[in-house]
Amino acid sequence: MKKTIALVTGGFTGESVISLKSAEVIERNIDSEKFEVYKIIITPESWYYIDRNAIKHTIDKNDFSLNIQDKVIRFDGVFIGLHGSPGEDGKLQGYFDMVGLPYTSCDALTSAITMNKGYTKAIVEGIKDLHTARSIQLFANTPSAAEEVLAGLNLPLFVKPNNGGSSIGMSKVKTAEELPLALEKAFKEDDQVLVEEYIAGREFTIGVYKGKEGIKVLPSTEIVSSKEFFDYEAKYTAGITDEITPGRMTGEEQARVERVVTEAFRRLNCRGVVRIDYILEEETGKFFFIEVNTVPGQTEASLIPQQVRETGRTITDFYTELLETALGK
């Protein structure tokens, strides 16, 4: 008997555009013989499903159900395809825990923590062979903020909204004069900003997931961008970035990376599939942790689908494993 699945998408931030594109890919690739899928769009104004006749049906938030032509649709589980808030910061996960619905992503606590880049770095600190860039976390754009940063860190710097995604509001700062504008840009996206020293090296991203056989690591992807860094345009515009899967690493580097990201996944108590970004430092080859994305993109241009295909599996088979693991099958 088919399981009834809610595919949630949309969101409250600028990443909602990417969420909708991810949902299109997910919806096309979920096994229709095993799952009946309803795409639920979540916006600040409404949670709803649009049927084939373009009629909008509002979700009953009391139990996350639908009423279509006097038939109540209740879900067996949720595939979370919503980037940013409320799908990636723990809010939806907490709600689904309260109404008793299983879902494909990390739980509420892990989602909330990993959305905060500074807090995540503090938790993974101490994992063998994992390094983090020196950083300062700012909680307000005070007149002395730039001065505080320059006194504590060495240029060049990366300035990031602490709770953001898709590199929105992020800047690379090479001179002291560029810093105030970069801080202003980041604080427009978030009320916390993380400033990190730049690490010169090769940039990679790698998928890690928990399936029927425990924690598994996907092939890495090496990011070679023609831009200064892997920003929003580089991530979602064809031709700007070369994405090499599997990434070019020695056998020792690959084994070390797999061990480090598996331990980070375990320490952060992750579930479902996450994407961990890292740099192998130019001169030393050391692993520098950047961040973890608990609802990684699933668009045609996204990296997790590339990595899954590299293993010889179909994305349909992969989504089936994620759903069945979440449902406890």
From TrEMBL:
<keyword id="KW-0067">ATP-binding</keyword>
<keyword id="KW-0479">Metal-binding</keyword>
<dbReference type="InterPro" id="IPR016185">
    <property type="entry name" value="PreATP-grasp_dom_sf"/>
</dbReference>
<dbReference type="InterPro" id="IPR011095">
    <property type="entry name" value="Dala_Dala_lig_C"/>
</dbReference>
<dbReference type="GO" id="GO:0008360">
    <property type="term" value="P:regulation of cell shape"/>
</dbReference>
<keyword id="KW-0963">Cytoplasm</keyword>
<dbReference type="InterPro" id="IPR011761">
    <property type="entry name" value="ATP-grasp"/>
</dbReference>
<feature type="active site">
    <location>
        <position position="166"/>
    </location>
</feature>
<keyword id="KW-0436">Ligase</keyword>
<dbReference type="GO" id="GO:0071555">
    <property type="term" value="P:cell wall organization"/>
</dbReference>
<keyword id="KW-0961">Cell wall biogenesis/degradation</keyword>
<dbReference type="GO" id="GO:0008716">
    <property type="term" value="F:D-alanine-D-alanine ligase activity"/>
</dbReference>
<dbReference type="InterPro" id="IPR005905">
    <property type="entry name" value="D_ala_D_ala"/>
</dbReference>
<dbReference type="GO" id="GO:0005737">
    <property type="term" value="C:cytoplasm"/>
</dbReference>
<dbReference type="InterPro" id="IPR000291">
    <property type="entry name" value="D-Ala_lig_Van_CS"/>
</dbReference>
<dbReference type="GO" id="GO:0005524">
    <property type="term" value="F:ATP binding"/>
</dbReference>
<keyword id="KW-0464">Manganese</keyword>
<protein>
    <recommendedName>
        <fullName>D-alanine--D-alanine ligase</fullName>
        <ecNumber>6.3.2.4</ecNumber>
    </recommendedName>
</protein>
<dbReference type="InterPro" id="IPR011127">
    <property type="entry name" value="Dala_Dala_lig_N"/>
</dbReference>
<dbReference type="GO" id="GO:0009252">
    <property type="term" value="P:peptidoglycan biosynthetic process"/>
</dbReference>
<dbReference type="GO" id="GO:0046872">
    <property type="term" value="F:metal ion binding"/>
</dbReference>
<feature type="binding site">
    <location>
        <position position="291"/>
    </location>
    <ligand>
        <name>Mg(2+) 2</name>
    </ligand>
</feature>
<feature type="domain" description="ATP-grasp">
    <location>
        <begin position="124"/>
        <end position="324"/>
    </location>
</feature>
<keyword id="KW-0547">Nucleotide-binding</keyword>
<keyword id="KW-0460">Magnesium</keyword>
<comment type="pathway">
    <text>Cell wall biogenesis; peptidoglycan biosynthesis.</text>
</comment>
<feature type="active site">
    <location>
        <position position="302"/>
    </location>
</feature>
<feature type="binding site">
    <location>
        <position position="277"/>
    </location>
    <ligand>
        <name>Mg(2+) 1</name>
    </ligand>
</feature>
<dbReference type="Pfam" id="PF07478">
    <property type="entry name" value="Dala_Dala_lig_C"/>
</dbReference>
<keyword id="KW-0133">Cell shape</keyword>
<dbReference type="InterPro" id="IPR013815">
    <property type="entry name" value="ATP_grasp_subdomain_1"/>
</dbReference>
<feature type="binding site">
    <location>
        <position position="293"/>
    </location>
    <ligand>
        <name>Mg(2+) 2</name>
    </ligand>
</feature>
<feature type="binding site">
    <location>
        <position position="291"/>
    </location>
    <ligand>
        <name>Mg(2+) 1</name>
    </ligand>
</feature>
<comment type="function">
    <text>Cell wall formation.</text>
</comment>
<dbReference type="Pfam" id="PF01820">
    <property type="entry name" value="Dala_Dala_lig_N"/>
</dbReference>
<feature type="active site">
    <location>
        <position position="15"/>
    </location>
</feature>
<comment type="similarity">
    <text>Belongs to the D-alanine--D-alanine ligase family.</text>
</comment>
<keyword id="KW-0573">Peptidoglycan synthesis</keyword>
